[in-house]
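go over this:
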Amino acid sequence: MERHHHNHSHGLLRETGKSRLRVILVLTSLFFVVEVLGGLWTNSLALLSDAGHMLSDMFALGLSLFAFWLSSKKPSPTKTYGYYRFEVVAAFINGVLLILIALWIFGEAFSRFQHPATVKSMPMLFIAILGLMINLLGIYLLHKAGTGNLNIRGALFHLIGDAAGSAGAITAAIVISLTGWTFFDALVSVLIGLLIIYSAWRLLWDVVNILMQGVPPHIDLDNIKQAMLCVDGVTGLCDLHIWSLTSQVDTLSAHVVVEDMGRNKEILEKLTRLINDKFGINHVTLQIEDEGVGTCKLFLSEK
């Protein structure tokens, strides 16, 4: 006997995330134009680097919105899980894009170290402060929408990198204004690039774990196994698997051995409620088996 249990409470969070992504995309697109023009005018690599990262933000935000739309489509005979996983694909593309932007920044910084350029520090400072304010607003909106969603996290990491870039540009503008050290502009760009690489690595690590159907990092497999085995009437488990279909959509499946098949409905309800309430896993598939027959006969795990 099997039971499948699904809870779509994450839908509200997804809608909130979408609406806030739209607002941030508009703000980011407008300021991208300002930062490019400002970077060219002030001759600041830090501003241009931040603008390049902001361009990736625009792509990332647009891709994230498309992923939300696509993942909301209903399952089909050929896509029985629907399109949830496209959010993971979008996050992967975002991570790769972050790395490419960082490599571009490193190349430009190396060139500036060899050939220092004059930078207009005061206009650079004003533009960088404005950029930081917009980035902090975007970070606040996405954080309030919930960072459990991998797709939103990908966009959030872009904005954090941008905020760091703007903060670095502010620092560079102040240092150049006080000391005349124009190389500091390139140095700050390198630091921005390193932060971007770190953000991309964290994002890609989570993406790979999902694609490999690894146990979600916030879940302890052994704790869940022991809790299930402690349910009255359960004598063993096998084929216990926990993975994420996408962020915020964790899935569990298992074969459960019971001593009395006459109690299978009661035990099934207890196990499902336990997994839902205590561990927050809403997609549960359990197969109840008798001790003497079934798949678990060969792989029985005693209490």
